[in-house]
Amino acid sequence: MIIRTETINDHEKVQDLLTQAFPGQEEALLVQRLREDKTFQRELSIVTEEDGIIKGHIMFSQASLIDGIHSHYVAALGPLAVLPDYQRQGIGGILIEEGKRRCLSHGYPLVFLFGHPAYYPRYGFVQARTYGIDLTQFTVSDEVFMVAELQLGALNHLHGEFRFHSAFEDLG
Ligand SMILES: CC(C)(COP(=O)(O)OP(=O)(O)OC[C@H]1O[C@@H](n2cnc3c(N)ncnc32)[C@H](O)[C@@H]1OP(=O)(O)O)[C@@H](O)C(=O)NCCC(=O)NCCS
After folding, report:
1. Pairing state between β 133-134 and 126-127
2. Is there an atom of ligand 1 within 6 Å of 147 CB?
């Protein structure tokens, strides 16, 4: 299986993957919006490919942690999707680990997400609010709002209000 940066030639297949993996169109729209944004970093949209089939896709975007007058750039994971026929084969985990490595090399200290509380803790994610991180942009329960350290110890000194890129708002 090949793990690589998404290219323009993959866009159609990735959009198809997203509509198969998720019940609505929100995630497909979100990926389109993020790709078109000036903050988009190509290496942070990653696919797994086997036998010419794009089996999984993950995207990370630039988000902010606002602490008083200071604002820190952090990464946000999402969406992550694996084609239904290839789920539970470890592809999601491979994409998360590769993405975390790439986010670290881009200088991000932390990566945030909204996700399944039973899935992400195995990849180092913990509840963000327990580390003094606020959220006002969306209303979600404590257990789905998660963060993982990329730089060791980052959660000890970075706090404030987390904000996703505005592309996450008003998805319908
Ligand atoms: C969630 C998803 C990305 C996981 O990818 P995957 O390649 O199937 O995951 P992996 O093979 O790496 O891991 C499989 C493990 O995750 C668990 N898992 C998968 N989806 C889960 C979910 N929604 N909630 C809790 N656990 C889940 C499986 O039970 C399995 O655990 P086990 O090995 O102990 O049985 C994939 O199922 C998917 O695309 N789902 C639809 C879209 C989605 O919900 N995306 C995530 C949004 S937060």
Report:
1. unpaired
2. no
> Hey, whose CA ends up nearest to atom 17 of ligand 1?
119
The finding on whether 119 has its CB within 6 A of some atom of ligand 1 is yes
Residue 89 DSSP class: S
Phi, psi at 124, each rounded to 5°:
90, 10
pTM (two decimals): 0.96
Q: Which two tokens stand for residue 39?
A: 């903050």
Cα(91)–Cα(85) distance, integer angstroms: 11
Q: What is the pLDDT of residue 154?
A: 97
CA 34 to ligand 1 centroid distance, Å: 23
When pLDDT is cut at 50, 70 and 90, the band that residue 65 belongs to is very high
User: What's the fold here for domain 2-168?
Assistant: Aminopeptidase (3.40.630)
Question: Looking at ligand 1, which residue's alpha carbon is closest to its atom 4?
Answer: 92
- pLDDT (0 to 100) of residue 172: 75
Ligand 1 atom nearest to 87, measured from its CA: 8
Give tens-digit pLDDT for 77-125.
999 999 999 999 999 999 999 999 999 999 999 999 999 999 999 999 9
Quote the percentage of the chain above a pLDDT of 70: 100
Residues 6+ apart with CB under 8 A from 152: none
